[in-house]
Design brief:
With about 190 residues, the chain is an alpha/beta fold. It has 2 domains: about 140 residues, Carbonic anhydrase (Beta-carbonic Anhydrase, Chain A, 3-Layer(aba) Sandwich); about 35 residues, no CATH class. Helix content is about 40%, strand content about 15%. The chain contains 7 helices and 5 strands. The protein has a 5-stranded mixed β-sheet, with helices on both faces. It is globular. The termini are far apart.
Length: about 190
């Protein structure tokens, strides 16, 4: 059985047995917070438990490395929507130790792209068009610095209200321990 079939079969039973009822909530976060974190599989259940958040408590936005690469990209748009439309009153950026984006080598990713069928001409066209693929794929060298950088982008964004605290944390994906990098109440 293929993975999609397995998911759909499980889902049919999940709905039929009304297992969704325990997750019923509204679209507004109970704790009035939006979190940007990494998509790392180790954080799927660990992060909410380490933060004591349950379904309905917070908005969670995920991407590779909890990075804000562009101040007018989809990540920043999601944070702004959470604040302006979904009643979030605080923003938390949570990176993690042992992140795959830490020290990521763009050349290795580009080589894998080529191995999977992306043509050199495509990469050259992107570079010619002003998209530096190596820079775009570059991760970060230090997770604490990366979190601090993303916090600064959010905090100083011209569309983010100045009264919204923006916090920065790093979680240990083995233990769930949180290290505070930036306390948005003190900024």
């Amino acid at each position: 059985m293929k993975m999609l079939e397995e998911i759909l079969n499980f889902n049919e039973k999940f709905v039929a047995e009304k297992k969704y009822e325990e997750f019923t909530t509204t679209k507004f976060p109970n704790k009035k917070m939006v979190i940007l974190t990494c998509m790392d599989t180790r954080l799927v259940e660990l992060l909410p438990r380490a933060l004591n958040v349950r379904n309905g408590d917070v908005k969670i936005v995920k991407n590779a490395g909890a990075l804000i690469m562009h101040p007018f990209g989809s990540i920043m748009r999601s944070l702004l929507v959470a604040v302006y439309q979904l009643k979030a009153e605080e923003v938390v950026i949570i990176g993690h130790y042992d992140c795959g984006m830490s020290g990521m080598k763009p050349d290795i990713v580009i080589e894998e792209m080529k191995n999977r069928g992306v043509l050199q001409e495509t990469l050259e066209t992107l570079n010619y068009s002003g998209i530096d693929v190596k820079e775009w794929l570059h991760g970060f060298d230090n997770v604490k610095d990366s979190v601090a950088h993303s916090v600064e982008i959010v905090k100083n964004h011209p569309l983010m209200p100045k009264d919204v605290p923006v916090h920065g944390l790093v979680i240990d994906p083995a233990t769930g321990r949180l290290d505070q990098i930036i306390n948005g109440y003190e900024e």
